[in-house]
Each structure stands twice: as C-alpha cells, then as structure tokens.
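Explain this record to help learners:
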Amino acid sequence: MAMAIRAQADAILAANATDMAAADGGLSPALRDRLQVTRDRIEAMAAGLDVIAALPDPVGAVAAAWVTPNGLTFERIRVPLGVVGIVFESRPNVTADAGALAVMAGNAVILRGGSEAAQSTAAIHACLVAGLTAAGLPMGAIQRVADPDRALVGAMLGAVGLIDVLIPRGGKGLVARVLAEAKVPVLAHLDGNNHVYVDAAADPEMALRIVLDSKLRRTGVCGAMETLLIDAAYPDPATLLRALLDGRCDVRADASLLALDPRLTPAVAADWDTEYLDAVAAAASVDGVAGAIVHIANHGSHHTDAIVTADPITAARFLGEVDSAIVLHNASTQFADGAEFGFGGEIGIATGRLHARGPVALEGLTTYKNVVRGTGQVRGGG
C-alpha cells in the first residue's frame, strides 16, 4: 500500500486538485486545510503505512493469562472486531490510516468519505486495493462507498449484524448525527475543546513554545488548543497573550486579562465551550491547578488537555485528576495523534470510557475472547 501511494503521488495530487477546486469558497479554512493533500502529506501517509506494517500483529496476542486453584487455565486473546464502518469528512488521509489499521487488526472496513473529498479518497483507495492485491488479500477487505447519497450513511448507522462498530471522523454535525441515530456501537469524540494550563511554576520560554504550537501549528486539527488557562500567580501572562495575537490569533479573554493588551476581545459564556478549529482562542485566569481542573471539568470535552509546570507534584495532580483521553505534561496538545503515539496512524480519537480511549489504532480495533483449557473439571453441585 505504501509503495502504491508513493508511486501514484501525481495521480493523488491531481485528484485532490479537482476536489479543492470544486470546494473553492464552500468550506471553512479549517476544512480546506483538512482536505488539502501535498507531497509532504502523501509521504506522511506512506510513512505511516510503513510504521503500521512493522507493528506486531495484535490478533492472537495473549492480553492476560492465569490459572485458578482448580487447575483451569485462562487466556484473554485478542481477536478482530469484525466489520468496521468509517464515516468521515474532508480528510483524505483517513482513507489510508483507516484502511491499513483495520486490515492489520484482522478486520474488514467500509469507508464512506464526504463528497468534498471524493476524488482524493478514490485515488488513495485505489492504492490500498493495489496493495491488497499484491499481498494476495481479498480486495473487499477495504471497501469504499462511492455513491454520495447521504441516505447511505443512514443505512450504515442501522446496519446491525452487518457492521460491528462505527467510527465517525468529521465535524460536530456529522458526529452528533452518528451518535444520535446509530444502532450499532460507536467509537467517537464530539468535540476537541482542548486546554493548555500554564502554571505559576512554568518555565516562561517553554510555556510560550507550547502555547503557540498547541494553537497555531495547525488550527483545524482536533488536537489544537482552544482555551488557554493561566495561573493567576504566573508572572508574565501578557507575553503569552501578545504572542498569540501577533500570530494573528483572535484571543477572547476574561475580565481579569483584558487590560493586558488592547487587541483582546471580551469573552462570552459560549467561548469556554467552543471548538473553534480556527485561529481563535479563549483565555482565562484561574486560581492555580485546582482552578484549572475545575474549569476543564466544567467546559472540557475529555479529549486532550496539557499542563506546563516545573513542579512535579502539581503536574501529578493535573495528570491524575483531569478526566481526558489524553493528558500531557510540558508538551503540545498537537501530539494528540496516533502517528505521534507510534501507532503509524489512527482510525479516530475516542473520548468515551468504554473499549478504547485516545487514538484508536491496532489494539483499539480488536476485542478479546476468553479461552479456557481444562483437564476434565466440572462444577457439580447445585
């Protein structure tokens, strides 16, 4: 698959140019960024497939084993989920990540991409099929729904007995619809309302680097910082805010921060709960790590939250008490990505508490069965 993607780079770029031209003016800047394919992004796709190919096969791995006093031997063995349905918008690279991860974990996958990325996903899917064929695997292991009819999404949501799990990747509207209407199990996150908390004990240079990268590296990804929380005792909040503003980020600040720069905009209640996916951020002053934890509990989306501090005790409290799928100490929230976790890619990020959490990759695409071996034991009795 990786070889085919590299070999077909020009065809993928041409297909993407067609999609970009058709979407001209009809998508937000964040969605246009997600839709665009470049040579660097094609190489990243192929490199991700190289990583996935080199990972240990999870199917058949023994997750746990034990022997009970009566001599029974128990093993918890990883098995595929079955048929995985992926409904996604804008991001052509999801085709490669999802297809490769699903097959590597022993599953079949049905991909339904958005109409805005139809040509790009078709070109990438063709590369995946070429890889399957070269490996002697069934071409139907990675299927693509080419028909843009939105009714087919509804058919996937109701395909009990045909699809074993659904994973939506896209805007809030798509994910909300899937969560509301699906009759099959869903792995998803609704929002990426992520926070960076700068503690009083943070190194100022490190804090500045992390805040800028978390917000401005790519504003349209689900791991981007949306709210900056600054300890009221931090000595130089103005520098952090000024750097964001100088980076052409619209900063919506609470009353205690507004006087620090005339370019700041007063925040309203909705700003604390908004995933902007754009060069917009909210900023608030909080009363230490306790105030940050409370703010995140009230407004966060259980996706990704970070603390910047040189105090290991404060860091341990934040990492232990913030109930998010990904929590970071002294690192950018933009590391919320399966490739950065060493997974080669991700099929999505799950923020629920069941089955899988965080970047869903090979292990998250398996379940397990309990294999019990005996020597004739019976329970007997009543």
